[in-house]
UniProtKB/TrEMBL annotation:
PANTHER family membership: HIGH-AFFINITY BRANCHED-CHAIN AMINO ACID TRANSPORT ATP-BINDING PROTEIN LIVF (PTHR43820)
Species: Actinomadura algeriensis
GO molecular function: ATP binding
Keyword Cytoplasm: no
Name of the protein this chain belongs to: Branched-chain amino acid transport system ATP-binding protein
Domain ABC transporter residue range list: 5-239
Similarity comment text for this entry: Belongs to the ABC transporter superfamily.
Gene3D superfamilies in alphabetical order: P-loop containing nucleotide triphosphate hydrolases (3.40.50.300)
Taxonomic placement: Bacteria, Bacillati, Actinomycetota, Actinomycetes, Streptosporangiales
Protein origin, superkingdom: Bacteria
UniProt keywords, alphabetically: Amino-acid transport, ATP-binding, Nucleotide-binding, Transport
Length: 253
């Protein structure tokens, strides 16, 4: 995959810090996502991954640094404008209405009638095709996640952020969904940010990754390099003392 983020970035964070009640939960976040790229945010529970996503889409105000999406600064005052411009977030609770059907969700999500786009979603997640009249609350966890991601993609986003796609799902389903999202992102030129607990599955579909620990980035590198440097990856993930001393390590590309 070409390193397009160096020449064109759809979403950029520079020294971003955000938190709650005046206390930062993440700080010093640097991130750049280009068209067709997949970047993963990795780290243990409490590392600041979800906080990072909320700050990237303007649902949480920045305490320091900056975030730019689609060429404009992200403002926490009007995050809905960011969604209208083409930045979509799939939250960890999937954001579905359990009383609405699959078709209801897709109808509400699309910007305009587009049979071609809808066909693309059903081609990407074929299990949904036979469930169009079923209410979201009656879907399995995997089907709900497919619907949540499919509905977000139906809105034709230029940037897609997904929080914990694998939450509550069998690994087999995750192994099917992650490559499908990656392939569609590359075909459509969508920049994707994944927050994921299944580290190896995430790295297998990512171009680059940032490992967070204790609210700050400790290791950044190409996904392929991180898979080769498993000892560094594990040390960063589990918060080895060496990372407390050396700070943020960026693996050479």
């Amino acid at each position: 995959m070409p390193d397009r983020h160096r020449t064109e970035s759809l979403l950029t964070a520079t020294g971003a810090a955000a938190g709650y009640h005046g206390v930062p939960a993440v700080r010093g976040l640097d991130l750049a996502v280009g068209p067709g790229e997949v970047v993963s945010l990795l780290g243990p529970n409490g590392a600041g991954k979800t906080t990072s996503l909320l700050a990237l889409v303007g649902l949480l105000p920045l305490m320091d640094g900056s975030v730019t999406a689609l060429g404009r600064p992200v403002s926490a005052r009007r995050p809905y404008l960011l969604a209208r411009r083409g930045v979509a977030l799939v939250p960890d609770d999937r954001g579905l209405f359990h009383g609405l059907t699959v078709d209801d969700h897709l109808r509400l999500s699309r910007r305009k009638p587009s049979p071609e786009r809808e066909k693309l979603i059903f081609d990407t997640f074929p299990a949904l095709a036979g469930l169009r009249g079923r209410k979201a609350g009656l879907l399995s966890g995997g089907e709900q996640q497919m619907l949540a991601v499919g509905a977000a993609l139906l809105g034709e986003p230029r940037v897609l952020l997904v929080d914990e796609m694998s939450l509550g799902l069998a690994p087999k389903i995750v192994q099917e969904m992650l490559p499908a999202v990656r392939d569609l992102a590359r075909a459509e030129g969508i920049g994707v940010v994944l927050v994921e607990q299944h580290v190896e599955l995430a790295l297998a579909v990512s171009d680059r990754a940032v490992v967070l620990n204790h609210g700050r980035p400790v290791l950044t590198g190409a996904a392929a390099d991180l898979l080769k440097r498993r000892e560094r990856l594990e040390a960063a993930y589990f918060g080895a003392d060496e990372f407390s001393d050396t700070g943020h390590e960026v693996l050479p590309s």
